[in-house]
């Protein structure tokens, strides 16, 4: 395994997820639909608003799976360079704990324009961090074992949701919403999302080691995507195993819109398949028309920096200073997105240069 080899399709896919996420967050700040839209209720006024919102559903699964894949690669590289097993795992755990720290000290406050220090909240970055810590404990296990653990976490989720608790009691709310349920304390419970991080580490075995050619990566990614989406479709058609929202018809958008907060088995299988499909697609485009996807690597090489800074820019400009805050609709969301990328792409390029040149261990973590 080449010590410094970069897998461009991984960077580009992470970049794709990053710019899609930026569009979703632009909608959150400039789209008037969010004056009344409940994040826990997947109802939309029209198809345009639906697709704008649903597009963002790929982002959290994409980030969790890529985190799992890169964690596996990082562990393998450190072992190959002579690091001990424990030191290689501890490196991942430190990174995971750093993400939790970033969530509570920076991200939470960024969402409110840094009006105050908003510590008491768990979120997606912290969820990724804890998932990374847990995955580090068995990152050296065979892929079959990691696959079994990842599937088990998704399969057990519907049963854990039946555990009764009182959301008005702090310790019960924090315990359940940290690991199982979604609510005001945390919309991203660890167990179902950790499942996707673990499955990402399984896919890394093929993407980054087993499948030696682009053709193999693309064919296997799409074959696995077809199986996962097929299983998700069967689950949804039978309205079982944790499905929550009804659907009117197979071809309607209500069919693909099931529970995200917290994700159920249909959601995880569906978006696991979607991530595999888009990774294969990005790889294919990169082989025949690299300029179309190459620019995505600007974002994908510094995803944490991009996440924190783009939220800060949006919240300060739109929310804190009231610039067109939730006054538009779909068009305004896209206009805000283009303006945001015009700011963020140069910043991401700049920070990538800083990160390459810097010897500071803190910069290396970002």
Structure commentary:
It is built from 16 helices and no strands. The chain is mostly helical. It has one domain.
Question: What's the domain count?
Answer: 1
Termini separation comes to: 24 Å
Mind summarizing the main beta sheet? none
User: Could you state the order of secondary-structure elements as H and E?
Assistant: HHHHHHHHHHHHHHHH
Q: Please state roughly what percent of the residues sit in beta strands, choosing from under 5%, 5-15%, 15-25%, 25-35%, 35-45% or over 45%.
A: under 5%
* Average pLDDT reading: 93
Q: Label the overall shape.
A: globular
Radius of gyration (CA) equals: 20 Å
Structural class given helices, strands, pairing? mainly alpha
Regions with pLDDT < 50 over 5+ consecutive residues? none
Note the total helix count. 16
Helix content: 55-70%
How many strands appear in the DSSP assignment?
0
Topology:
Blueprint: H1 8-30, H2 47-55, H3 59-80, H4 85-110, H5 124-137, H6 143-160, H7 170-179, H8 190-210, H9 214-237, H10 253-256, H11 265-288, H12 290-294, H13 297-300, H14 303-320, H15 330-357, H16 361-365
Helix pairs in contact: 1-3, 1-11, 1-14, 1-15, 3-4, 3-5, 3-8, 4-5, 5-8, 6-8, 8-11, 9-11, 14-15
């Amino acid at each position: 395994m080449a010590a410094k080899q970069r897998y461009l399709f991984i960077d580009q896919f992470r970049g794709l997820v990053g710019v899609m996420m930026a569009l979703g967050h632009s909608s959150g700040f400039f789209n008037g639909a969010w004056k009344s839209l409940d994040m826990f209720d997947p109802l939309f006024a029209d198809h345009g608003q639906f697709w704008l919102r649903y597009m963002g559903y790929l982002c959290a699964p994409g980030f969790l799976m890529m985190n799992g894949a890169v964690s596996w690669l990082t562990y393998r590289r450190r072992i190959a360079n002579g690091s001990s097993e424990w030191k290689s795992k501890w490196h991942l755990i430190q990174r995971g704990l750093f993400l939790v720290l970033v969530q509570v000290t920076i991200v939470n406050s960024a969402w409110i324009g840094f009006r105050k220090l908003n510590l008491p909240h768990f979120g997606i970055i912290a969820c990724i961090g804890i998932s990374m810590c847990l995955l580090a404990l068995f990152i050296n296990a065979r892929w079959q074992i990691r696959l079994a653990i990842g599937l088990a976490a998704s399969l057990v989720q519907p049963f854990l949701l039946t555990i009764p608790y009182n959301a008005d009691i702090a310790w019960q709310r924090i315990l359940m919403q940290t690991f199982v349920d979604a609510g005001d304390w945390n919309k991203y419970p660890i167990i179902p999302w950790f499942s996707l991080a673990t499955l990402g580490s399984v896919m890394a075995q093929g993407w980054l080691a087993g499948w030696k050619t682009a053709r193999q990566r693309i064919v296997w990614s799409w074959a696995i995507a077809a199986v996962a989406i097929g299983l998700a479709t069967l689950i949804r058609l039978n309205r079982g195993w944790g499905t929550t929202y009804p659907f009117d018809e197979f071809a309607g958008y209500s069919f693909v819109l099931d529970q995200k907060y917290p994700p159920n088995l249909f959601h995880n299988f569906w978006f696991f398949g979607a991530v595999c499909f888009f990774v294969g697609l990005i790889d294919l485009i990169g082989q025949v028309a690299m300029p179309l996807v190459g620019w995505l690597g600007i974002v994908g090489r510094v995803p944490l920096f991009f996440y924190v800074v783009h939220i800060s820019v949006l919240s300060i400009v739109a929310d804190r200073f009231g610039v067109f805050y939730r006054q538009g609709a779909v068009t305004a969301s896209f206009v805000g997105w283009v303006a945001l990328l015009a700011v963020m792409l140069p910043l991401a390029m700049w920070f990538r240069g800083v990160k390459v040149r810097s010897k500071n261990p803190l910069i290396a973590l970002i």
